[in-house]
Fold these 2 entries.
Entry 1:
Amino acid sequence: MGNCSSSEERKKAEPATKIARISPSSRAIAVLLSLKVASDGSVQGQVFRTTANAIDCARKYALAATGIKNWHWHDTRHETASRLAVLGVHQEMIGQMIGHKSTQMTKDYQHFLQAELVKAVK
């Protein structure tokens, strides 16, 4: 696919948010333990066998193919909060996963589909 994003676009990446403290799965731990650490402390090997540019190219391709406009990585936080709430995950737990300081902020992130609201009433 080649380089589908300019260096300027990559520099405009959304700022990092507070990191949530979630225990990794046993599979994630096994992958991390399989990496080699050199004597200078640098890690040799890859956790994800791809590049940031490849992920960005795939994102752009998917958005173009689906016709979705004005989508940002941050939107996945809202989607995650909403889907976890629909599944019945407690507000405080959702907030911890996403890195919120208050349950009100977590509630503000949730956007329910009309169909989910109708199903909840029935």
Entry 2:
Amino acid sequence: MTVAQVPWSPLWQGLLNGLGWVLAQIYDVVPNFGLSIILLTVLIRLVLLPLGIKQIKSMQAMQAIQPKVRQVQQRFKGNKQRQQEEIMKLYKEHGVNPFSGCWPVLLQFPILIAMYSIINIVAQRPLHLPEDSALWQDIRAHIYEEEQNGSVRFVGMNMLCTAFQAGEGRTEAVRGGPENRPISLDCGEGLLTRIPYYALAVLMIVTTYLQTRQMQRASPPGQSPQQQMLTRIMPLMFGVFGFTFPAGLVLYWTASNVWQIGQQAFLLKAGHIGPQAWGPATAGAAPAGPAKGAGDRPRGSGGRSSAEGARDGDRKKRRKR
């Protein structure tokens, strides 16, 4: 049983059919599978924009309590476990979510699974594209009738093929797809054919890392080990996906990452969030005192400046007169 066949959620089936319908409508305007996926990605990111703004507001609240966080770090600097407990208690008291930097990635997983069910037509049943749509008719002619259709290709890649299938020519006819008939894919031949697939997979890994790292660096010090581990594991996990998922799905995730990186950079700058706003990044660091400028004068005995001593001397002379 595939993800798309899970019977317990009519709402989930509605989401799959709805996204498939929107993708087909975009394809009617821009008859290229890859470009349609990119435009659908932009539309999804715009719908999720309010969540990104809410995330930034949460980070602003987290930033506001950083002086108290540093006090806790300084107080329990010899006890890391107690330090983490007290910081989490502080976050709870102020209604702050320390995992806010993870949400942009985690919230995309349901949509990623939905896009997998829509794009991975070869392995999925039932079909989530309208049967009378131009998109499905073009894909159907390619996988069942073995027609050469440039609309399913984008920058040299067949959006239905994986990086592992690239360069192997037309795949063997196997029974599958929505009609459960013998199908085959033309994934190109030769080593050069594999280059765009591999480049896209690498770009997927890099952008996934940059996206999570961007929010980790913008988050104040004292992050949980779980959040730090997520930054390391996510790129590795998506590295596997990048070579085993259809190129169309890899394109969706990469385009979504690029959009998210730009959106986060803009919102973080607009919200004045980052190391320059919350102070020293070193855990337990005390706030820096005022810098000694050129106008500072050396102190005399008793902590008094030479100018103050001169003024006292003048007052004494006037009294004697």
